[in-house]
Amino acid sequence: MPKRPPDLRQTVERCADSPERLHALLTAVSEPTVGGRYLHWDELTHRTPPHGLSHEEWWFALKLLRRGLRKAVPLHDSRREPFHYVEIGPIAEAAHKIDLGAGGLIEMPGGIANPETRDRYYVSSLIEEAITSSQLEGATTTRRIASEMIRSGRPPRDPSERMILNNFLTMKHIATLKKEPLSRRLVLELHRHVTTDTLSDPSAAGRLRTSDEPVDVIDDRGRTVHVPPPAGELADRMAAMCEFANADEPFVHPVIRSIILHFWLAYDHPFADGNGRTARALFYWSMLRRGYWLFEFVSVSSVIRKAPAQYGRAFLYTETDDNDLTYFILYHLGVIGRAVDELHRYIRRKTRQLEALEARLHGASGLNYRQRALLSHALRHPHRRYTIRGHQTSHGVVYQTARTDLLDLATRGLMSAEKAGKQWQFKPSPDLERKLRET
Questions:
Q1: This prediction's pTM
Q2: At what angle do helices 326-362 and 89-102 cross, to 10 degrees?
């Protein structure tokens, strides 16, 4: 729990009696950040204030400056107090970087541009997001077991695996919903997808919570850290959220709008369970709808999972400081930036691995040049089917030589053979990369 900011009424009263003191406070602070950082009172108390000011006076000066710069959003708390954020330089800079790294005008990474290798990155990213988003909500299955379940298609064995599979299927489903405007029906549909067969009350999937379903957020010490709005307000609040999600005016940067939607649903906690997973799913829907196509491949939860306390603190900083969303927006922009960077690094790493494998193939013992050429092609076209006749034509050899080449690759486990009518077809092994690395 962060320290709550002090009541500044006494500071205001002292300044009212001393115009000189008020002038000193107003001139001591010239920007809403401290060393480029938007600090909460909890962090400010660990810094040295400007000469001659107490921490309370420093905080008062910062708050006064921030208040004049804040921008309201149509979300309000249970006391009808509005939420807002301050459009500081770091927000615009981070949003611009995301535009360049994940928006419609970026150059498509090679692996994603190739339709035959695209699924390799798509499925891997969906699995990573499904696992880490579920782990944030308490799922305990290991990454290896969860990945094996999804890739093999076997049914989940326990609630943790069910939660992960639900998240995976939901992420795939979101890509089909990105052209739809947000509606209550769509939000309930997302919730139903992420919670099916994971709730103690199955009827709670895909419906708003009722007044007899308490959902106060409790920390690990048993302290209440968030009391959501009453159930009777949820229908109107969701209608307002959908209106905000679909609006184009007044302009809010699309990434900021998506982040606010994430916070909004998590703050309202409209469901008996599964609010965090639904909030992150809603964030993905909004990013894809606004044209950030790379978010079909980006895993935000994998970054959040590395430091989950910071995720919770971003919510608490906002709630404890007059509903100032700037903290949550800045935190989430940092998470998005790191997630996009990680995807680009992952694609570069996989590309280098493929290039290294192809280089190794040129010197592989036991394989002739025709087999090496075919495997090099298969690495970049994992769904391609090869025939004896096609291999014969490509290399200008007799049928028997082409047949021997392909059957030998099948014997080595690098290709699999199946009959299609009267013709044999060969396709790359699903784990061809691993087998070649071990060769």
A1: 0.82
A2: 30
